[in-house]
């Protein structure tokens, strides 16, 4: 339920409906716009919103949708139902166009059944009856004319008419040439009078020719005569024309009778086309508003993120300006948001944005806000905006407000959304303030939800001390003395009356007198609010900076964790390798000693043989001592080329070089591709490469990083600095991974985020070029970045 009846006018929904009408392709769709209702059924609303969201996806990302010949055929269906009537050639042609569009539409969604499940429900149980088209096509040609061979009788009549006309014309030409030769005919040519072909004859010679005079010129000097010789032939043509007309009526009547049993199905087709046009119009307008489907909840609450007033958004879009987005939350904890702040600071726009978006949502329309916004379902929307004084009803402005407040108090409940602008104004503030506070207290007890704007200090204090009410203010730059149009929840705002008056240039004497006349307590409250605004802005800026630093710290900690894991993994491997090598050396040394002793024993301590054995032992000992040093010494780096076989240092993994890029190389290890630094690769001979490459350590980490890397980043909804920070990290990682191109999704909007990103990319040394995505896949809402 909406109250008052002109809620749509007060919140701007009437203008939204007019915009929606312009998006419709048919009169049926426009009629549905006029019949839009405030929907309170959660399941129905979710279905309608999902259908619009899916159709938006069709228009933005899918192939072109059939969007022609949305004709109103309801009057044709009604005509068909009446026995004895028949449709004209033009009627059947219109019916053919509509049926073709309907069948194309059904096929379009049948081919995409799994992509658009909610739109698919529109066709459930609907039969595609191609026989109707075949029957019409047998009689009506593609240009909408009756086929000459529709029936043998018609074909015969047309042939006889053509033959009779040819004979009549042949005889008339002979008579006309003879009349010219004799000088009986006036200057000119054959002409038509009363549907008959006649000869222009000079009046003085009219008795020299036999025939029937059909007309004469204005001067009476020329008569128009039909020769007697062709009179009978022309009568025959006329009779044949009547016969042809009777046959056409017979054919059309027969065709109408054949189509008549399908009247209910034709009604269904008409209804389908009407709904499709209406949903398509909503989706088309959603694209212009950059609107999306929020998270729908079956409870009276809302949480808007980056919401824009749709009418203001379109107006600013044309002039190249940007709408400051609105972020607001209304739930059980903060049911009523009391917005205060300076005049022209955006209080009313804030309230109307919430109300208008709620009306749009519950009419099945997408809203211009982030898709992670949350919107609930209200059963009543009560609005008090503007001056509703009435001379006829003997109502003053304040009386009109009180009349509405009476209705609000009586009708409001938990499922009600209230919108009240300048609460309590219109009478003496000394009395208006307390009455407004009492009304607010009752509404709060009824647990209503809503947005209320006010300048009254008593309402701000009441909201501050009452559960369920939450103060909010429109931020004001008191240094430059201009509104910021940003809603800040949690604290009331000052009206900045004196500051604005001073900026406007009100004389200092007037300002001093005004300050004297207001109480000290009020001055202290106002000064306190101004100070709070200033401190709040400082806290907000500090909070943003801290969040940014904390985010960077978390990323560094994550990187450090990965590096530590890599170090621990390789340290264990190196220790194990060293232990294995030491054991090999010990076994070799023991074996050498045992062999030397055996040789000495075998030589029976022969001096010369003992000396040789000792020398051999010393030589082997020196080799064993130098072997670890050689193993630890890095081989001189050899230049690599594509196709070389390489081994990852400190691992057993081998692979083939596929691509070289600056200090990195892409190598194929088995079925995997990995990007590895050149200084970690050692060239090996083909015969040394293993039959099956194994990955471990850093190589495995690199492979994991490359396979998990997504060459697309979505920065919609981010702030400017946050966006550039994320893109910088993303580009660095992409270059390290050896990527050639990236996609940055920033959305269209007003183009501010796109320009900010493009300007930054121009300065990034690793970027080669930037261009828009193809129009069918996002256009200028997506930037394609080519890397060097």
UniProtKB/TrEMBL annotation:
Q: What is this protein called?
A: Endonuclease MutS2
- Residues forming the Smr domain are 713-788
Q: How does it assemble?
A: Homodimer. Binds to stalled ribosomes, contacting rRNA.
Entry's NCBIfam families? mutS2
Gene Ontology BP terms: mismatch repair; negative regulation of DNA recombination; rescue of stalled ribosome
Give the protein's biological function. Acts as a ribosome collision sensor, splitting the ribosome into its 2 subunits. Detects stalled/collided 70S ribosomes which it binds and splits by an ATP-hydrolysis driven conformational change. Acts upstream of the ribosome quality control system (RQC), a ribosome-associated complex that mediates the extraction of incompletely synthesized nascent chains from stalled ribosomes and their subsequent degradation. Probably generates substrates for RQC.
Alphabetized UniProt keyword annotations = ATP-binding, DNA-binding, Endonuclease, Hydrolase, Nuclease, Nucleotide-binding, RNA-binding, rRNA-binding
UniProt enzyme class: hydrolase
**What top-level branch of life does the organism fall under?**
Bacteria
Q: What InterPro entries does the record point to?
A: DNA_mismatch_repair_MutS_C, DNA_mismatch_repair_MutS_core, DNA_mismatch_repair_MutS_sf, MutS, MutS2, P-loop_NTPase, Smr_dom, Smr_dom_sf
Question: Could you tell me which species this protein originates from?
Answer: Solitalea longa
Sites binding ATP sit at: 341-348
**A GO molecular-function descriptor:** endonuclease activity
Q: Spans of biased composition, class Basic and acidic residues?
A: 604-618, 626-636
Segments of this protein annotated with the region Disordered: 604-636, 769-788
Q: Which SMART domains match?
A: MUTSac, MUTSd, SMR
Q: List the EC numbers from the record.
A: 3.1.-.-, 3.6.4.-
